[in-house]
Amino acid sequence: MKNKFNIDLRIFEDYYSADYFKKTREILSKFKPNQLVTMQWFQRKENTVVCGIEIIKEILRLSKIKNLKVEAVDEGDIVEPLEPVLKITGNYNDFAHFEGLFDGILSRASTVATNARKISIAANGKKVLNMNDRMDYYTNQQVDGYASTVGGIKNLVTYASFEYLQEEVELNGTMPHALIASFNGDLIAATKAYKEVFPNNNLVALVDYNNDCINDSLMVCNHFKNEIFAVRLDTSPNLVDKSLLKLKEKDNELHGVNPTLVKMLREKLDLNGHQNVKIIVSSGFDEYKIRYFEENSVPVDIYGVGDAITKNKIGFTGDIVLIDGKKQSKFGRENTFSNKIKSIKYM
């Protein structure tokens, strides 16, 4: 069977295991070789979308360890603080080295899945682009793309993000500022070149290069007319677009991509016959900013989200809670039951 998640097989050589887990296994191999333990994993935040269970099942399958009883919630289930998401019962020596590893898998994947769900809900069904590739170490793209999809954001921008997904790759990208810079700041020339090389792509113009989003949007839409699919605003939070400079500002509400700018852009596009051109916004968007835009009926069609995908880290902890079927655990970490957890097969 294919190694679906491309697990680095060095995990079975303790390459990624903390030294104290390896030493504990050696000690127990000598003094408690037949001890049967139950370990459970949990976290402490409300409305957490659990992700990583399928990856853990794949690791256990590849490990070829037999005689483990594994119980878990379903991938994508929502759990509350202290609610167990995974339990493994067996000889501790067989899986001791996986304790920290599984903590990390659940933490990373569930963080991304939970953030994706919150952002997706805030966007009220509008399309969200996961643009986190530029905000994190590149080897995280595979698991982040998978977890993002579990959480509800399926619009990804790199091939690596689709590696763990059983679906056709459909990249969602626009032009970067570097393309416009390469044409000496000429937005028309850059857009024309993009269209010529990728004639079957949706034509999306990035319009904040000159910090003049409204005029540049009208310029590019008037030039390419109905060929333009969307314009994207990516104004930095420390800037005020030229079209807003004459307005009075309180509390920086005119900085960056803001409701006033987007509403004005929509109005100008419509007045000039570009009602079908969509508006994409990015730069500093998270669930709170998206919710604010939606509550104020800002005419955004697509949101681009970066580091908000991996913020608000969710930490998981694995603890022994039973030894030979009897209660034994750190204070406050007792064996806990959940009607969501069920026995699963991993072989």
TrEMBL record:
GO terms for biological process: NAD+ biosynthetic process. Keywords: Glycosyltransferase, Ligase, Phosphoprotein, Pyridine nucleotide biosynthesis, Transferase. It catalyses: 5-phospho-alpha-D-ribose 1-diphosphate + nicotinate + ATP + H2O = nicotinate beta-D-ribonucleotide + ADP + phosphate + diphosphate; nicotinate beta-D-ribonucleotide + CO2 + diphosphate = quinolinate + 5-phospho-alpha-D-ribose 1-diphosphate + 2 H(+). InterPro entries: Aldolase_TIM (IPR013785), NAPRTase-like (IPR053190), Nic_PRibTrfase-Fam (IPR007229), Nicotinate_pribotase-like_C (IPR036068), Quinolinate_PRibosylTase_N_sf (IPR037128), Quinolinate_PRibosylTrfase_N (IPR022412). It is an enzyme of class 6 (ligase). Its EC number is 6.3.4.21. It holds the Pfam family QRPTase_N. Pathway: Cofactor biosynthesis; NAD(+) biosynthesis; nicotinate D-ribonucleotide from nicotinate: step 1/1. GO terms for molecular function: nicotinate phosphoribosyltransferase activity; nicotinate-nucleotide diphosphorylase (carboxylating) activity. Residues 24-110 form the Quinolinate phosphoribosyl transferase N-terminal domain. PANTHER family: NICOTINATE PHOSPHORIBOSYLTRANSFERASE, NICOTINATE-NUCLEOTIDE PYROPHOSPHORYLASE. This is nicotinate phosphoribosyltransferase. It comes from Spiroplasma cantharicola. The gene is pncB.
